[in-house]
Amino acid sequence: MGDAPKRRLPVVGSGAAPPRGGAAPPGGGAAVPEKRKLPVLQSSGDDEGEDRPPWHWIALGTVAIFIAWLPLAGLVNTLLRKMIERTGDAGADGSVRLAMVGLNAIAFALAGVAGGYLVGRFGGRAGRREAAASGAVVAALAWALALAEGAPAGALGWALLLVVVVTIGSAASYAGGSAGLRSRAAFGPPRSR
Questions:
Q1: Predicted structure pTM score
Q2: C-alpha angle with apex 46: 43 to 52, nearest 5 degrees?
Q3: How far is C-alpha 143 from the chain's CA centre?
Q4: Structure confidence by residue, pLDDT tens digits, 157-185
Q5: Who's near 34: CB < 8 A, 6+ residues apart?
């Protein structure tokens, strides 16, 4: 049984076994259509496809800043909590509150630089302006979340906080975008595989 030649099954509706090479079967039967192959899209390194519009990079930068900011803020606030536990509640009035605000602002600025760098380095037509806009968007979203929490600050306090946070976010992201553009110019555009 193992030595017997393998037999091809006939194609349904043709009445005969398919011939090799797609030629017409003997006896004048209809030709079996050749197999159609699907086109394969292969990318050469030269043509990268259509570039994203710059406003897409504002959204991507916003997400990148949030992704970088959340672990930094968690680390900063864990360290601050340990600092408050050591000093006790009495020492938490002035210097610890100042450290809390300052370290959280530094964490936000570092995240802004990282997100701005991403936009500047990989952003195609996007640059410093889109990087700064993504920092401003994150700052405005963070401000709105703080406002929704209902911390007492008054209207003037909330307006001043918005200005300060947007300034920090957009300036840090602008600096990161500038560094990303310098990196792009120094090392060339990023290549895909």
A1: 0.67
A2: 80
A3: 22
A4: 888 989 999 999 999 999 999 999 999 88
A5: 22
pLDDT tens for 49-95 read 457 788 899 999 999 999 999 999 999 999 888 877 877 665 556 77
C-beta separation of 153 from 175 below 8 A = no
Structure tokens at 109: 């600025």
Helix, strand, coil tally for the chain in percent (to 5)? 65, 0, 35
Orientation angle between helical segments 154-187 and 54-87, nearest 10 degrees: 120
**Among 174, 100, 117, 112, residue whose Cα is nearest residue 138:** 112
How many C-alpha atoms does 179 have within 13 Å on its Cβ side? 14
d(CA 182, CA 128): 11
